[in-house]
Design a protein that fits this description.
Length: 399
C-alpha cells in the first residue's frame, strides 16, 4: 500500500539543523534556524520562566484537558500584549483569541478557518521573500498563493513603491500576510510612516490583513514591535487576524506556545468567530498543551515577573544588536566592508546577500550552516564564534 510513497524533500530550515547536528566537526556553527542562543551558545532558560516553573513544581496539579481555545489567563494576557492593555478593540469585545500549538499552529488554524470562510477562490498575498513555511501552510490549506514585492536587493531595504503597487492591485477580500517586525528572512522592516500607508491601503482596498508576529520584543521592545497591530486597530479596519508566537520572546521553543486572534466588527461577530476557531482546533488537535501556557501566563500575569521578562528580553535584544555591530566591524577589518547594512536590519535574521555557492562553501569548508538564500541567524553569534564566522564570511566573499 505504501510502496509508491515518495520521499518528501527535507525542510530547508529544520532539515539543515539535522545536517548540522550530524556534522562531527567541533568548530561547527548553526546560523540556519532562528533560535536565539546566549553568550555560552545555549538556548537560555529565562529566570522569569524558571521562577514560574519552580512554583508549579512546588504545587503539582492534576493534568486535565485545557479548554479547546486554551488557558483563559493565557489568552487574556496575549490579547493585552498584542493589542495593548487599553485597547478599545478589547474593551468592545471584538477580539477572539485562542491558544495554539506555536505560531505555526496559529497560522495553520487561521488559514484553515479563512479558507472555510472565503471559499474555493481564497487567495493570500505573501511578501517576496518570506518565511518558507508561510507558503507551505497556506497552500496546504487550499489557498492560491500570490506575492507582493517587499525586499529590494539594490538598496537592501524595503521596495515600498513596489509593495504599495502590488497591494493596490489585489482583489478585495485577498488575505495579505504581513510580518509585524523583524521580517523573516530579510531583517528589513517597514518604518512607522510606511506602516501608516500600508494600513490605509489595506483598509481602502478591503484587503484582509493577517499579521504574523513571532519576534515581538526583538527589535525595539514589546510595545513598539506591535505597531502594525495597533495601527490596524486605530484605523478602524473591521476584520483582521493575528498569529503570534512566544517561542523566541520567552525562549520556549519546544513548548509550542502561540495564539491566534481574529478581530471582528463587533462582540457578536467575535463570538461567532471564536466558535469557528474552536471547531477548527477541535478537528485538528482537539485542544492545546498546558505547560508552556502556564509558564507564559504566570509571567505575564505578575507585574514583577512581567517586568523581569521585559528586562531579559531587552538583554537578548541588546546582545543581538551588539553582535550585529561586532560582525560588521570584524568583517570590515578582514577586508569585507560591504556588510555595513547588517546593523540596519532588525531581529534575528540578516539577509546577507551571500550566494548559494558561497553558502555551500561556508558549510563545506567551514562547517558554518546558513540558509541557501543567504539568510543568517545573527542571534546564534557569540564571542566564541564571531571571529571564526567573520573570517569565513570574509573569505568566501572574496573568492
Ligand atoms: C526560522 O525561520 O528559522 C524559525 O522560524 C524556525 C522555523 O520553524 O523555521
Amino acid at each position: 500500500l505504501f510502496a509508491h510513497v515518495e520521499m518528501a524533500p527535507g525542510d530547508p530550515i529544520l532539515g539543515l539543523t539535522e545536517q548540522y547536528l550530524a556534522d562531527p566537526r567541533p568548530n561547527k556553527v548553526n546560523l540556519g534556524v532562528g533560535i536565539y542562543v546566549d553568550e555560552a551558545g545555549r538556548v537560555p532558560l529565562l529566570e522569569c520562566v524558571r521562577e514560574v516553573e519552580q512554583a508549579l513544581a512546588r504545587d503539582p496539579r492534576p493534568r486535565g484537558y485545557l479548554p479547546i481555545d486554551g488557558l483563559p489567563a493565557y489568552d487574556r494576557a496575549t490579547q493585552k500584549l498584542l493589542f495593548g492593555a487599553d485597547s478599545p478593540l478589547l474593551a468592545a469585545g471584538r477580539v477572539a483569541t485562542a491558544q495554539t500549538i506555536g505560531g505555526s499552529g496559529a497560522l495553520r488554524v487561521g488559514a484553515d478557518l479563512l479558507r472555510q470562510i472565503l471559499g474555493p477562490g481564497a487567495k493570500v498575498a505573501i511578501s517576496s521573500p518570506s518565511w518558507g513555511n508561510h507558503h507551505v501552510v497556506f497552500r496546504t490549506a487550499g489557498f492560491e498563493l500570490l506575492e507582493y514585492r517587499y525586499y529590494d536587493p539594490a538598496s537592501k531595504g524595503v521596495d515600498h513603491a513596489g509593495l504599495l503597487e502590488d497591494l493596490g492591485r489585489l482583489q478585495p477580500g485577498t488575505v495579505v500576510l504581513l510580518h509585524a517586525c523583524c521580517h523573516n528572512p530579510t531583517g528589513v522592516d517597514l518604518d512607522a510612516t510606511q506602516w501608516h500607508q500600508v494600513v490605509a491601503l489595506l483598509k481602502e482596498r478591503h484587503l484582509l490583513p493577517f499579521v504574523d508576529i513571532a519576534y515581538q520584543g526583538f527589535d525595539r521592545g514589546t510595545e513598539r514591535d506591535a505597531l502594525a497591530i495597533r495601527l490596524l486597530g486605530e484605523a478602524g479596519v473591521d476584520a483582521f487576524v493575528v498569529a503570534n508566537s512566544y517561542s523566541k520572546s520567552f525562549s520556549l521553543y519546544g513548548e509550542r506556545v502561540g495564539a491566534l486572534s481574529f478581530v471582528g466588527a463587533d462582540r457578536e461577530e467575535a463570538a461567532r468567530l471564536r466558535s469557528r476557531i474552536k471547531a477548527t482546533i477541535r478537528a485538528n488537535y482537539s485542544s492545546p498543551a498546558a505547560h508552556g501556557a502556564l509558564l507564559v501566563a504566570g509571567v505575564l500575569e505578575s507585574d514583577e515577573l512581567r517586568a523581569r521578562w521585559e528586562g531579559e528580553l531587552g538583554q537578548m535584544r541588546g546582545r543581538i544588536h551588539a553582535m550585529r555591530a561586532a560582525l560588521v566591524d570584524k568583517l570590515a577589518a578582514r577586508g569585507a566592508p560591504q556588510y555595513g547594512f547588517f546593523t540596519r536590519q532588525a531581529g534575528m535574521f540578516s539577509y546577507s546577500g551571500l550566494s548559494r555557492a558561497q553558502v555551500e562553501r561556508l558549510r563545506e569548508e567551514y562547517a558554518i550552516y546558513a540558509l541557501s538564500t543567504g539568510r543568517i541567524c545573527v542571534a546564534a553569534l557569540n564571542e566564541a564564534n564571531i571571529d571564526y564566522v567573520a573570517g569565513a564570511v570574509a573569505a568566501v566573499s572574496k573568492g
